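User: Structure tokens for this complex, please. No commentary.
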Amino acid sequence: MDSSKSGESQKLYIETYGCQMNVADSEVVVSVMEDKGYVVTEDINEADIILVNTCSIRENAEQRIWGRLDVFKQIKKKKPELTIGVIGCMAERLKEKLIEEKKIVDLVVGPDAYRSLPELLKTVETGQKAINVILSKEETYADISPVRLDKNGVSAFISIMRGCNNMCSYCIVPYVRGAERSRDPQSILKEAEDLFQKGYKEITLLGQNVDSYSWKSEDNDLPTGQASGRQGKIIKFAQLLEMVAKISSALRIRFSTSHPKDMSDDVLFTMAMYSNICNHIHLPAQSGSTNVLEKMKRGYTREWYMDRIMAIKKILPDCSISTDIMTGFSGETEEDHQDTLNLMTWVNYDYSFMFKYSERPKTYAARHLKNDITEEIKSRRLTEIIELQGKLSEISKKIDLGKVFEVLVEGVSKKSTDHLFGRNSQNKVVVFPKQNYKTGDYVFVEITECTSATLIGEPIK
Ligand code: SAH
Ligand code: SF4
Ligand code: F3S
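Assistant:
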């Protein structure tokens, strides 16, 4: 704790958009701020500082933030001393342009500069605008204990790496999150152990491409001064996964995102060895057409992707598989689109996140490829993709009727206070009568009914 707590009793309200990485980052931000005496509030009207953690992945993600800034403007009208900060990916992409566009913005901070927030707020207190969008090659916030903002106290995210080196041609992430870097495995283990001690039962390891996690440990056996040509030990994702799984069999492990070009059988074998590593893989395909994948610079073909799916089905027969699909990328033909639909059917995805391609400034695609699929065609293709996934999701639930799953309870069902909800290892939501069970319990549930989104069942003793 800092004795000169400049922020003492100032109230911070934080709003988070975008992916799980941003959710995890907001928890780092709150930790940095609380350390200087700021207090988090969930009531925007009593805030002294509003921070909005932003996403730039698609144009509509940014549009939403502009809309929020207009709302904050109204609040600031009534409370001129209010500080408004934009942090995260859109802050990194637009930099000072954000302040030029919206005069109400006082502070702009990129994803690698959160440690500087308290200093920057001091600058804002003197009536100036403050900005730090420097990207780092090293920052992993390894030593910062995130302040958990989740409501259930059961599941938490842990960032194991930052940035991305893949440069998929459509993607803004490498520009706003910088180069890929992995975090020290010891700090990851410690964070997972702490969470388990505090009663958490599930952690999700996060990275844009977890399969490229790599940490070179120091070779402590070497006498000082003899660094010679010998290499330290390299820890890859499969080993990290195993280290975390060994903390306790009562701690569930999930991870996201796997990249088809890098997902190794090693990871699948490690998953098969530990029952607490959940049987679910999110493996974004983006497209089922090799032509499109090549233009996307994804680094794999349709056949390679199918080979990876076959490996999952062979090594982990009970594993669920989900994906991301993007439709209407540059030059995508009707045949390419059909290839995507038939890949989806072939894999039989349990669920998917489905998007229309949105051109992002500065990316390879924006500079070299035409955004030439009309909005009308993109919409029609997206509808077909969503409809197909609807059918696949229904099949994915129906095959579970009569099965028994171990469910980790996350809370009371939204639809009925007499019911609890949780997820099975396959990441499917299961709802069942509450009886004497509570949040954080593991309960065996026999599935008796389903909707396209939820499994419904009865607890068995
Ligand atoms: N690192 C992950 C993806 C992170 S972004 C991976 O490589 O799989 C999450 C998803 O957003 C992507 O999988 C993609 O489907 C979608 N996406 C990324 N850029 C996009 C763009 N320019 N337009 C539309 N969707 C996009
Ligand atoms: Fe973007 Fe590709 Fe990196 Fe995923 S792997 S974040 S899609 S550049
Ligand atoms: Fe969005 Fe940044 Fe995540 S652009 S998807 S919040 S890494």
